[in-house]
Amino acid sequence: MAKIFYNIIPPEGYNGKISRKPSSRIHFGEINKKSRGFRFGFGILENSLVKIVALLVIVALNFGSLLTVHRTVSYLNNTESSNQNNFTSGILDFELNSTQIFSDLDLNGGEQATGTIELVNLDNIPKYKVKADNFSGLLCDYLNLEANLDGDGVEYSGPLKSFDYGPVVFEAPDNWFFSLTLSGNATDTLVGETCIFDFVFYGSQVRNNLPFGQGFTDEENDNNNVKAKLCYDAQTRSCEYWKNHTNVFKPYLPQMLGNELIDTVQKASNVLKTACGTCGCGCDNSTRGKLKGQLLTMKFNVAHYGVEDYFVTSTSQTINEIIAQADALLAQDPVPPDEELEEMKNLLESLVDLSIRACKESYIKVLVPNCGEVWWVGRTYDITWSSKNLVCEAGSDPQISIWYSGDSGNTWGKIIQNTENDGVYTWRVPLYLSDGYYTPSDRARVKLIASCPEGLQVINWDMSDCDFCPPIDFSLLTPEELEQAKSLGLIMDEEIKALSEESNNIERTTAEATTTDLTTESTTTKATTTEELPLEEGGGSIIENPIFSNVDNATKNNTTTDTGLTSTTTEDVITPDTGSIETEQTTTEETSTTAGQGATSSSTTEIAPAEQSSAIEVQPVTGPENSSTDIIPTDTDNSNEGTTSPGDAINP
Questions:
Q1: What span, in angstroms and rounded, lies between the C-alpha atoms of 200 and 222?
Q2: Tens of pLDDT along 94-112?
């Protein structure tokens, strides 16, 4: 057995070398030697295979471990199910059935407009708030709102900007009734101003009792636009009226009729007579001529009453549009057929003698002189005004004509034609205007007329709210004016000479005072001490007995009433700066303010009968062109005779 074991397992120290010897016989011992060599090679291979297999087993085990980890993660997930659940889809949505209830709304002061917004719910019932928001424009500060839900009572009444109501739960029907009012104390400076704002409805869900604004929400807006207009009751007058009231239409000249310029009272009167009077010899009695008369009538109505935007339902046109169409007919060459001219004439004629509601989107306002000022003849002052939205259709700037009245607006004389609309005109008050109108008066007013260069269309006007007073400062009259005053019997040659000497004395005194660095100096004349007055542009400063005279410009004659002319005395001295009468023999209660600033100067003086010649009423040598005594001052405050004018509405 040991041998056999030997043959199988080599002893220690065996070098593994096997010698092969040729032999024809194979002995058992040799076979054993060969078998041992083969087995040794196979053992080496076997060991390598074992290692490879072991390595593969290790890799397989690691991969299996990784797969096991993945399965482990997957098995950590959990799925639960709930039975008998019911999910219902829904929305929170509502809408406004009425929108822009105050869109392009024109309001006059004190007027009210109403509108209704219906809230319509489309799904789940909301609770909501409503407020006014997103304001733009100056007019918003003058608008008041009253809000009423479903007619049950007033939910809100107050300024538009403060309206914020809710939350309230929707309950069909939800109708909101709104009343919007322009404050009655809104001034005419707001004319043309706008207010753009929104009514905002903000809704929130009712379910789950969430605080308002949480959960599902919806918002709807109603946009509004409001504009302030100046509206007033007006009327249109007939051709017959204008033909007999030249002093009313005189300030509204010139006018264009087609391509023809009507720039004088005589031309206008001839045109009017053709349409509604005795035509006379040589006048245009054709259909075209009669159309001109009716067109001029309507242009005077527009200029005086401001009815240009009145909408004529029968033609779906405004009066301004009809006027433009009539002008175009008159300007056509060749002349249109008489049928077309007759139709337009009849249309214009049908629009007279109407009482209508007229509105304006612009304004012009006299600031100074407006009431109670004392503007001395011979001195220089600034006529000032404000305006807004005076826009001409062609885009050009309007021009301003300034007129003067010495009888509270009954008659008019022209100060300047077509000056710039810059808000101020510097005027030296003359004794006579350029058209011969006498200026000194205690019932003076000015009128401003804005018109467009193209077509000479009057777009707005205003006059002083009440009277102011221009007495005479003789020391500042020109030599020509002194001669005119002398021809009226207002001053004597001796007084003119005295004024000249006084002026020379003042110049010398002023020069001496300047040399000696003195600011004031007293001069004694005829036992009377007169304090030097501040020098003003255009003449001297010391005035003794400047005559204040009321001359009726509506009366045409050359008569001078001699009631005792005034000579220079020392008893009465009228001070132009205060309007007071200083006298040693009378008691004067005086209230003085600065002239030209809208202030009033008044005095109460007891004058002896012998001294009352200082206030002389005389008739002018020449006066402005005017009609007979049948004059209706339709644009004055103290005598309307059933008429209404934009001036009254602009200046309430």
A1: 7
A2: 888 877 789 878 787 778 8
